[in-house]
């Protein structure tokens, strides 16, 4: 009798665990991408790019400059909010902000393959007007920016609060799940860094509560040519842009 009860409990535990794994697999992109914060657009987009039949709508600041800057934001970031600061910090560059698929007024659905494809299409579009293009990628955007810089002649690359692998980040949060087997959008940045042939600045938030320091350090170790590193003291993952050292580091590197 006792053995039978134990077998029933084990079977129930297996079913429950399997159900959790299935739910995580099916809902993983809802965990990774959070476009909802960007849906209430305050400034109408003034730039449009169509890639693979998907219409992406964003903003261009300081048009007509000889050099360009493309910014890729975090998974829950309203990149619209960076418009004025980036335009003021880099008056000598035309700034391109293009929300990810399903963010703000962009169509489609986000995935790693889609976001990287859109980044390549955006770079190719900008390169028709400006030959010198710098790129900033923040958090999730660092995974997009790394793959772009590995495939296109980026002038300078800035990675803000980056990670080596989204799989490894997720495994740190869900160590009791087979994360490596479940994840489709992996953002394995460490695999691409040695195909990057431009100066790189990595900005790390000292008190980053989202991306563990070891994940950023692992990315740094993957570079054969060590990038420049700036640690923003007392900054958190979502507040790094509020510190003067963040602006100063970007201005020094990109001017």
Automatic annotation (TrEMBL):
Pfam families: FSH1 (PF03959). GO terms for molecular function: hydrolase activity. Residues 102-229 form the Serine hydrolase domain. InterPro entries: AB_hydrolase_fold, FSH-like_dom. This is Serine hydrolase domain-containing protein. It comes from Dyella japonica DSM 16301.
């Amino acid at each position: 009798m006792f053995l039978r009860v134990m077998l029933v409990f084990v079977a129930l535990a297996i079913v429950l665990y399997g159900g959790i794994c299935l739910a995580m697999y099916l809902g993983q992109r809802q965990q990774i991408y959070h476009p909802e914060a960007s849906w209430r657009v305050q400034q109408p987009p003034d730039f449009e790019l169509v890639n693979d039949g998907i219409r992406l709508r964003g903003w261009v600041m300081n048009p007509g400059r000889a050099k360009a800057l493309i910014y890729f934001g975090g998974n829950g970031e309203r990149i619209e909010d960076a418009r004025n600061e980036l335009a003021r910090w880099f008056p000598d560059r035309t700034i391109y902000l293009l929300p990810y698929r399903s963010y703000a007024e962009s169509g489609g659905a986000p995935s790693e393959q889609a976001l990287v494809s859109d980044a390549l299409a955006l770079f190719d579009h900008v390169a028709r007007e400006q030959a010198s293009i710098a790129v900033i990628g923040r958090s999730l955007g660092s995974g997009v920016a790394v793959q772009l810089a590995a495939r296109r002649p980026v002038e300078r690359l800035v990675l803000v609060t980056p990670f080596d692998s989204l799989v490894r980040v997720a495994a740190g949060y869900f160590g009791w799940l087979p994360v490596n087997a479940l994840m489709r959008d992996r953002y394995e940045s460490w695999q691409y860094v040695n195909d990057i042939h431009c100066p790189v600045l990595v900005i790390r938030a000292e008190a980053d509560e989202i991306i563990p320091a070891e994940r950023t350090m692992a990315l740094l170790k993957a570079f054969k040519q060590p990038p420049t590193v700036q640690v923003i003291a007392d900054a958190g993952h979502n507040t790094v842009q509020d510190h003067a050292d963040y602006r100063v580091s970007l201005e020094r590197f990109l001017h």
